[in-house]
Amino acid sequence: MVNEIAWAGTRASAADEWIELYNPADQAQDLTGWILTDGNDLDVELAGVLAPAAYYLLERDDDRTISDLPADLIYSGRLDDAGETLWLMDSHGQLVDSANAVGPGAPHPLLSRAARGPAQFAWLHELGMITCR
User: Fold this and answer.
1) Residues 64, 101: Cα–Cα separation, whole Å
2) Order of strands across the sheet with 2-5?
3) d(CA 79, CA 40)
4) φ, ψ for residue 42 (rounded to 5)?
5) Distance CA 29, CA 27 (A)
6) Are 46 and 31 in contact (CB under 8 A)?
7) Which residue of 30, 38, 62, 73 sits 20 to 30 Å from the alpha carbon of 9, by its own alpha carbon?
8) What's the confidence (pLDDT) of residue 115?
9) Beta-bridge partner residues of 18
10) In the 3-class helix/strand/coil scheme, how is 16-28 assigned residue by residue?
11) What is the pLDDT of residue 22?
12) Rg of the chain over all Cα atoms, to the nearest angstrom
């Protein structure tokens, strides 16, 4: 369900962090009581219902980061750009999904399988995960 994370913010500002969740199921998911946490200084309690095949956008501090999409939730705190893991827990405390940040230049555990074609290399290079020559 964790679909995309702007760990280091955007090109406009490193503070423009955002997190996107996605519901791949055929049924709506009630997010009441769900928590997105790094187990340290970030604990975001979710609310609302996520429709099937829909996205849930969390923006840091305000709703101006992604100007053409309204945020479903504003959170405070900050994401660590390297080495941090986020866990998405349901209302019963069960792990639903997780994602981890990999710092620029650090090898990602799936890099050897993920970077098999020019598009993947370009994307990983844009993220600062590899250096293409």
Assistant:
1) 23
2) 2-5, 18-22, 55-60, 73-75
3) 11
4) -125, 115
5) 6
6) yes
7) 30
8) 42
9) 59
10) CCEEEEECCCCCC
11) 95
12) 15
Q: Which residue has the tokens 């792990």?
A: 95
Per-residue pLDDT of the chain (133 residues; tens, 9 = 90+): 888 887 766 666 666 788 899 999 999 999 999 999 888 888 899 999 999 999 999 888 766 666 667 889 888 887 777 777 888 999 999 999 888 876 555 544 444 444 444 555 455 555 555 444 4
For 18, the token pair is 């955002």
Residue 126 to residue 133: CA distance in whole angstroms: 13
Select from 60, 72, 75 the least CA-distant residue to 12: 60
pLDDT of residue 90: 93
Token representation of residue 66? 């992604």
- Type of residue found at 81: D
